[in-house]
């Protein structure tokens, strides 16, 4: 009995050249078919529902998604240790002492500023200059030391109390006119007398007990 060729149109017939899927098929053939189907499904999902391929995220986009760092707390300017606080208190005390000393010195020298202003108005008038020098000396020195001085003793006192750097003694220059000035008739100017008197007012050494 001769073998008959299978009918291609019969149900369950395998076309010539098609891989067998039945029991007689080669091992692994079904797995290869399933793997191909899975790859196709994954490609379709990556393409999106509308079939457009979505490009991967760029580096800039990924960086934008990073959380911003939390800023550090502000740095306090207050001293962090007790040593700095103590140093600050000591510095404030020193500044206060310097300010107090400067205020006392300015107040103690107020009579000098008043005498210089009066000498600027008096000019080189011997009578006016003599009166200003006498008042200034009575403020700076004890009254019993100044009130009884006249003539050459008065000029010598002015020379001895002149401070360092004074430009010459009053007795060696125009200051000699101070002796006869209170008794001279009429005003008459003595050149350089006002400048010499102002120099004494600025530089005379006042006793510490009187300041």
UniProtKB/TrEMBL annotation:
InterPro entries named among the record's database cross-references: DUF4381
Membrane-spanning parts: 82-103
KW Membrane (keyword) present: yes
Family annotation (Pfam families): DUF4381
Keyword hit for Transmembrane: yes
Positions of region (Disordered): 1-28
Keywords tagged on the record: Membrane, Transmembrane, Transmembrane helix
Positions with biased composition (Low complexity): 1-12, 19-28
Protein name per UniProt: DUF4381 domain-containing protein
Gene source species: Albimonas donghaensis
């Amino acid at each position: 009995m001769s073998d008959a060729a299978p009918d291609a149109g019969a149900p369950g017939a395998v076309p010539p050249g098609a891989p067998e899927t039945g029991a007689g098929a080669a091992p692994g053939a079904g797995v290869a078919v399933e793997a191909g189907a899975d790859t196709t499904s994954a490609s379709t999902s990556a393409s999106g529902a509308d079939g457009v391929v979505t490009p991967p995220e760029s580096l800039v986009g990924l960086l934008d998604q990073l959380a911003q760092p939390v800023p550090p707390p502000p740095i306090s300017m207050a001293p962090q240790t007790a040593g700095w606080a103590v140093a600050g208190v000591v510095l404030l005390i020193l500044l206060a002492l310097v300010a107090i000393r400067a205020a006392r010195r300015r107040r103690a020298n107020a009579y000098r500023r008043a005498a210089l202003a009066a000498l600027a108005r008096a000019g080189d008038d011997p009578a006016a200059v003599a009166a200003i020098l006498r008042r200034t000396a009575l403020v700076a020195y004890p009254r019993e030391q100044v009130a009884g001085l006249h003539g050459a003793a008065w000029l010598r006192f002015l020379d001895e109390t002149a401070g360092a750097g004074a430009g010459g003694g009053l007795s060696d220059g125009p200051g000699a006119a101070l002796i006869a000035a209170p008794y001279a008739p009429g005003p008459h100017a003595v050149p350089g007398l006002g400048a010499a008197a102002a120099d004494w007012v600025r530089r005379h050494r006042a006793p510490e007990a009187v300041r």
